[in-house]
Amino acid sequence: MFSAALRCPAWVPESARVDCISRAPALTLGVLSASVRLMSPVIEALLVLQDRDRRLLRLRSEIEAVPAQRRLLEERAARTAAEFDTVRHRSQQIESDRKKLELEVDTLKQRISKVGAEQQQTRSNDQYKAFQHQIETSQGEIRRLEDQQLGLMEQAEAAARDVAVAQKVAAEQKAESTKHLAELVVREANLRQELTVVEADRVVQAAKVEPAALSKYQSVARKRGDSTLVGVPKGVCGGCHMQLPQHIFLTAKAQKDIPTCPNCTRLLYFSSEMD
Ligand SMILES: [Zn+2]
């Protein structure tokens, strides 16, 4: 019922990814009994309990990873929006510079017109030449400003293209992030729902374990997490991989007690295929 929504989505990068929940079916006493015959009931019950604890650890770890995944999506959208803002601001700045030049040209044209009028009215030859010089200087300045305007117009065209691209990218990223954020909400809800189910089941499974064995398991589990009860294939500890002393292996094999590994303190169990 949860499988589709619990898979790690493809957009989650390796750095933010935690182990996705195994979709392997939950261990049950029935499944165990069929696959590992001749195992003591207490070991069977502990293996089921350990399976629930593993699932709980994975579920909690996936739930803990959700805020980082959410931040990542929000940051992506914010980054492309900021890039769009930067490009748009540059385009606005070019337009504002261009208008400033236009105003300067207008002012110069007005000055030329005013000086031209005064020039027409003067009778002094020297003054006439001085007005003429002013007019030519202003005309030269207008040409210089118009060249700058042309340069800015080219920049404005390029900036407009950049703005269009950045706007498209930002809109696409925003839509994608929104979609993935919505998926993440569903995913987190499903994870929490499964967590509740497995937590309840864990209580049921724990009640099936003989109290002394349960206490021993829980004490080791506090240090060893999801690898508390391990097999002894060929007399080797399935947790730390050290060769076990013969008497410990034989104790595990006899299944009358649950020995601990002298090296890593994990609980040891034996099943027929480990001989
Ligand atoms: Zn060990």
Give the SSE layout:
Layout: H1 3-6, H2 29-35, H3 41-121, H4 125-207, H5 211-224, E1 229-231, H6 246-254, E2 267-269
Parallel strand pairs: 1-2
Zinc ion binds next to loops.
Task: Give an overview in words.
The protein has helices at residues 3-6, 29-35, 41-121, 125-207, 211-224, 246-254; strands at residues 229-231, 267-269. The protein is mostly helical and 275 residues long. The protein is rod-shaped and about 130 Å long. The protein starts with a helix and ends in a 6-residue tail after the last strand. The chain has six helices and two strands. Helix 3 runs antiparallel to helix 4 (125-207). Bound molecules: zinc ion. Zinc ion binds next to loops.
Q: Structural class per helix/strand content?
A: mainly alpha
Helix content: over 70%
User: First CA to last CA: what distance?
Assistant: 38 Å
Which spans have pLDDT < 50 for at least 5 consecutive residues?
1-6, 15-24, 33-37
- Give the topology string: H per helix, E per strand: HHHHHEHE
**Number of helical runs?**
6
Provide mean pLDDT, rounded. Answer: 89
Largest sheet: 2 strands, parallel
Q: Please give the radius of gyration in angstroms.
A: 39 Å
Task: Kindly state the number of beta strands.
Answer: 2
Outline type: rod-shaped
Strand residue percentage: under 5%
Bound ligands, named by name, code or SMILES: zinc ion
Adjacency order of strands in the biggest sheet: 1-2
